Every structure is written in C-alpha cells, then in structure tokens.
Amino acid sequence: MGVPRFYRWISERYPLIRRDVGFGEGTPIVDNLYLDLNGVIHTASRADEVDKPVLSEDDIFLNTFKKIDELIEIIQPTELIYFAVDGVAPRAKMNQQRSRRFRSAKERLEEAQKSAETELISSDNYFDSNCITPGTKFMLRVTEALTFYAEKKLKEDRRWENLQIIVSGPNTPGEGEHKIMEYIREKKAKGKLGNNKRHCLYGLDADLIMLALVTHEPHFILLREKVNMGPGSFGKSLMPKPPKATQTGAGSALDYELLSIGVLRECFDSEFSGLKLSFYDLERIIDDLVVLFFIVGNDFIPHLPALDIGEGGLDMMLRMYKHLLPGQGGYINDSGTVNLNRLERVLRELARIEGDTLVRRREMAKHKGRGAKRITIDDLWTDDVPELKSSNQRRSAPTALDSRRQDLERVIDAGNSENEDSDASDLLPDEALIDLVNLAAPENPLEVHVMLRKAYYEAKCGFSPDNMELLSTIVEDYVKVVLWTVKYYYCGVVSWRWFYPYHFSPMLLDMINLSRYSDRITFELGDPFLPAQQLMAVLPPSSSWALPQPYRRLMLSEESPISKYYPVDFKVDLNGKRNLWEGVVLLPFVDERELIAAMDTVKPEELSEEERRRNKPAKSILLKKATSPNRPAEDRRIVKSPIPNVMKDFPAGSDLEEVEPDVNVEPFHGRKPDGVLEPVNDNETLGGWPTLSSVPFFSAVRPMMVNVFGHPSKYASFVVTPGNRIDEDHEPTPFLPFQSVDHAMRLGLKPGNRVFVGYPFQAEARVEGIMDSTTVVRFGQDGSVVREKVTGDRFLDLKMKTIERQTTEKALRMVDSTVLCDVRLPKTKNTFPGEVQEYRGESKIVAGELLIPWYRRSSKREVSQNYVPGQRVLCTEKLGFHGHVGTIQKNRKRRRG
C-alpha cells in the first residue's frame, strides 16, 4: 500500500527523476528485473466488459502472462527475473491488510444496496479480490501458473535462455517487495551482487522508493503504470486499467513511467551538500531521510495528527532536518539502528508547530473552509517558533501566550491567499475533535492546544492524558513501531508477531525522553502465521467462502469463541481526512492466542489434502536453462499446465531447485559499494543510464508550480539550471555548447545523426533539423539536406515554448538556448538497444544544450547468442530479400574500426 501521496510529492519536488516510457524510446540496460506481482494479479482479475463481469481463472492467468510479457519486453533484463507474490505478512502489516479488506467488503455491500442488487452479491457473480491472499485455493493455482509460465518461456523463448528465474509464491512467507529486498541484501552481503549491478523493480507501491534507497545501489530504476493524480482522482482506484487487446511489444509502453533512484540520489546530494558539514555523508543522509519519510506515513506507523504530506509536512520536515543536522553532530539512522536522542530532537521540533496546526484546522472548521486563507504546515514552521511544553512538564509563562497568538496571526496574514480547492490533498478538520472542543472556546492558541490534546487522547485512545502510565505506554509502543519499521527495511523481519496495539499515534508534544525506552525495547523473532491463520486474521465474513469449510463456522457462527473479531458493521474514523480510503478502520485487534486456540479445534483430518497443502510454508524456487537439455523426454519432469484447455503439458527444459534463504545476513549498510562506476556518456557498462551530470548544472529548491500531474504543484521543487559558473549577480551563466547552426554542425551535430534526448534520461533519437535565429538545416522532401533562412520571431517563439515546457514539466530552468533541434523518436525498438530500425515515431523540438551525443551502447546480447545455425528467420531488411524466410548458416562477428 505504501505512503499516501508520497509518490506525487516526490515527483513534484524532484520532477527530473521520472519520465514516461514512450513508444519506441529505449530504456537503460538492466541486469535484474524484480516484479512485485500482486498488483499485476489484481489488474488481471478485473473484467473490462459489461457483459462479462467475472473472468475465469484461465482468463486471469492469461492476462497475467500477457502483462508479464509486456513488462519484460519493455525492460529486457539480461541476467535475472524475480517473480514475487505476497506471502504471509508480519502481524504489523496484517492489521493494515485486515482493515483494507473489511473496508472494501463494506464498500462493496453499500454500493450493491444503493443499486438494489443486494441479492446478487455472491462469489459466483463477482471476483472477490480478497481471495488474492495467501492460503486460498486461487493463490495456490497462481503459484502453479507462474511456475508453468517461467518454465515455458525458458524452454521456448530464446531471449530467456541466459536468464535465471526466481519464483517466490504466496506460501513463501513475507511481503513480495521485502522478499526481493532479502534477495538483494543476501547477495550483497556475500559479495555476489557485483558493484555495478543494474536493477529495475516493478510495482505500484510508493514505498518501493524507500526500499530502493535503502539498498544504497545507485543503478536502480523503478517501473510503474501511470496513474491519474489529477483533481478528484484521490479516493478512486490507483490500480491500472485491466489489459485490453492491443498490439504486442513496446507499443503499449505509453502507459508506463520510469523513476530513477540514481537521479534522486544526485538530487539529494546536490541539495544537502550545500550544508557544508564536516561529517557530510550522502549515504547516511539518505538513511536519515528514509526514517523521516516513515514518520510522515507508512503502512506500519500510524499517522501523526498534526503532520500530513498534503499540508506540506514533508517540505517542512526537510527544512527542519537541514536546520537541525549541523548541530546534531551525526545522523539518526545507522544501518537500521536509530539514535533516539537525535530522533527526539526532530520530533520535538515538530511539536513546536503541532498546536498551531490544530488551531489552524479549528479556524478552518469555524469558517467551514469558506474565505479562510490556505495555511500549510510548511508556512507555520520557522526556526524561532517557541518550544511548547507537555502538560506533564511546566506550563509556558503567560507572557508567551500573546506571542504565540501574534505568531499565528502573522502567519495567517502572510499566508497564501488562494482559496481551498477541491484537491483531495487538503485536510478537513476532524469533526469528532471539533465537537469535543467547543468552537466558542478561548482563542488562546496554547489553551486550545491543551483542550485538543485532552480531547484527542480521550476520543482516539480511550484514556485521559493525565493517566501518565497509559501515556508512557503508548509513547513507548510508538517508538517501538518506528524501530521495528526501520529494522524491517534494513535487516528484514525482527518480529513476526509484534504489532502496534493502537489505532492512533500519540501526540508529538508527548515525545520526550525517548532514550529511556532504549533498553526496554526488544524484539522476539518468532514464526510467521500459517497461511490459514492469516486468512482468519484478515478476511471479513463476506469472504469466508475462501476459507476451508471447517474454518468458516469459526468466522460466521455467533457461538464461535472468536466471533467478536468479525463484525459486519464497524466505524471508519476519517481522522481529519477527506477520503474514506484514508480513514482508520476501527476493528478489534485479533488476539493470536484466541485465534490459534479456536483454529486448533479443527482436526487435520477435517481438511482435504489440497487444503493442508495450501497451509504449508514453501521455499522460493530457482529456474534456469537445463544443463542437459537433450536427455530423453521420459527422464525429464512434466510441467503441468494450469490451463489445459489453452496450453498443454510439456517436458521440462529447465533445472529447478529450491532457494534456501540465509537468515543471518548483515543489514543494508549506509555506504555505496566500492568500485561503483558513474553513468558518464562514454561508459560501456552504464551508458544510457540517466544522470544529471551529463550536463553541467546548478540547483536550488524554490517554488516553481511545476505541472507533473495535470495541475500546478503547491510546494517547492528541485530546480536545475544548466550552467558552467556563477556570474557577479550570483546567477548561473547559460550553458551554451553550440553558438549557431554552423558551429553545431562543425561539432558533429547534423541532420541524420543519432543523439540521446530526455535529459537526464537518455532516449535515442535522430536529428531531423537544426535551427538558430537565422538559419534552419533540415531534411528536404527528397531526403536531401537543405539550408533555409528563418525569421527571428519564429525561432524565438519555438525557443520560448521549449523553455516553458522544460520549466513547467521538469523544473528545468533554461536561461537561454541558441540552437534548437527537431528530433524524431524511433517507431519500434529492436531486440538490441541502440540499434533502431526506423525513425518514424514522434517528432519534437528540444534545446541543443540538452542533447547528449550518440555513442554506441554495447548490445545486451551478441547476435550469436540470439541466432544459431539452423534457426529459421524472417528477413526484414528493405533489400532484395525483404519478406523472405531463410536459415542461419553461420555466425560471424563484425569487425570494429
């Protein structure tokens, strides 16, 4: 699930880190492709036809295969493909899964009641996505289908023959993305990963960004579907649309985007290196940022009442961190071990604006959002805001009250004058708290804060903040869940059974003396739940059909000793949010001892053999091309088809072995691997990988109103200005490598030449024409190169549109541009990167300053690895043999030079 709005926030703050994967545009060469497949399965199961509301399992598996084919066609990995499906999750995540499944069941029932179709609800006429949970019959078949698909591709698709495939199914414990991280961490710790491994991770969850950062692998990209983040999109499904009948291959890649972790690391480096720290270390700063991102929102850590991304919480957090870091003398996070004293300084700083945030929301409630000026958390924090004291400490002097009121009034007067719009990224006041704190209460901000604090704990946590024992307990558990989460990302699961036992977090004002908990907080690893136990822990009663029959009565019978855990109706606390999907589902926490005791009343013989098999943990499997492919068919395994009506069984052509995980693996350390190469233009290994350094630049963080998702951002962005030096006015001088068309042509930039465009990404294109303020050199209709005069107004108009587009979409501030180029993208991508058949794709105008000269990237595979003597081929060259079928007789390497 990840962090709500985090992907949008980071894309708008650092817009150069992402780009759409367009039709025919090349992607960097990737060694390892990791597929987090739960999202694929959800998408594949969704029908796209009114007259066929439910897909058969055969259709779902075929859609899944088609989707995986598409992803692999886009990335074309050279060494490894990792298929990861969610297995049993830690209890800390299971509670969130339980909430999500109960809420979706309730929404489905309410929608059906509105449509007067209640009687139609059954597992026979709609696909219950809750069955995409470990332990169900459907998920057992998913494992069989993925294994069949991988074995079939290894046997029949020559592009797969040098690949290793890992299939980690739902019976292998762990979340899919974290099983991928376990693989990377183990290979890295044992020195088997290599210093310049090129990774791509596919998935929709925003926390994949944090996972990739945690690895400290600089050559890492994320692939995901484009999702609608325009006005009114929040609350709607963020899942991609189900697959449609489209052309195969990269033509469907328009619906995807890439995010470069390497470019994000460069942005962090450029932004934070300006602090001039004596102990500056980019890797350690990245580790600290991961912890701060967790604090703002995560599947495991409950939302803090006064901190939200939609109110500028992360922008304020980064400014605050920069302010505090020089005086900290070190970092918060050391390879998964959190320094609580340094973390407390950040939380105490956040507490200084907690009261103002709550008062502001109260003010919004009084005005019902009408006529009130938009104030964000980022507006409220300055480094001279007086510190608040917890109610169990001494109260602030009365003289501070007027100062606080004046501070608040100054902020409101100076705030953004625009009215609240309909964007769901804005918060609504929490009505429950507003009711408890009478709107006629004193206007003194500190007194209102005290009242809101009391109301918060009584309404949300069920006790008074005057109860110091309970208050200390919830603070300790909050600290513990932060430590658990950081350990989970850096070291793997440190406790399968522990979870945060509250629906809400404590208030920031009470985060004091955190170091006292250090010696008291410990974790016991324990064992993961069995798949059937997880089903009983997360499924709502309406999905009981997915359980083995003997367990259903435990969920449905009023006489069941655990019936209290399966309410049909329950409350959702919006907790100050606008959308139901953001609310807190108020379900009772399942007592595992009661659950397991009740399930133990079901005897093993009451379960079928298949049901017992569904409940057994399993290991991941490794598949690779058989070392002895020519052995007799009777000596080979028979791969059983999960869809025999469509695909047949076949003798295995691959070797299969179980993967034995190593549980004693070092955590991800806050350092970059030794011997890491930088993706400079002439580098054979990393040529084509995105990098800011392909153009000299200066950077700053400032408001730019970039438009990444359909409307302007409200917060600051990382602005890049190409330039070589700073002039006397402290402005970057323009980076102008080409003074004119003639100068560019003397340097080799000519119509017909190949270049890379899309800075900082590198998409191959061909130059169609070059223009300056007086001249254009381009291809004529007969294919010859012609030179024509151009008016200065036309050039100026094109230049301004180009500069405006770069500024608006990428926060790329072009001071000037002397040469523009008309480039054409390839229509199709060949099997070999850098070798393009035809340039008939989209034509676009780009600034000459952002072009990267073409260099020959090494192919992913030599021709001899793809075509062997005796293989039949189709000739596509537009020569005398176009369209003829031939047979490969001999391979011959082309000489260079």
From TrEMBL:
Residue intervals of the Xrn1 helical domain: 280-630
Signal peptide span: none
CDD domains: PIN_XRN1-2-like
Record keywords, A-Z: Exonuclease, Hydrolase, Nuclease
Single GO MF annotation: RNA binding
This protein's GO CC annotations: nucleus
Domain Xrn1 N-terminal: 1-226
Record domain 5'-3' exoribonuclease 1 D1: where: 682-791
GO BP term, pick one: nuclear-transcribed mRNA catabolic process
Pfam family, one: XRN1_D1
Region described as Disordered: 604-633
Keyword Transcription regulation carried by entry: no
Compositional bias ranges of the Basic and acidic residues kind: 604-613
Family the entry assigns: Belongs to the 5'-3' exonuclease family.
Protein name: Uncharacterized protein
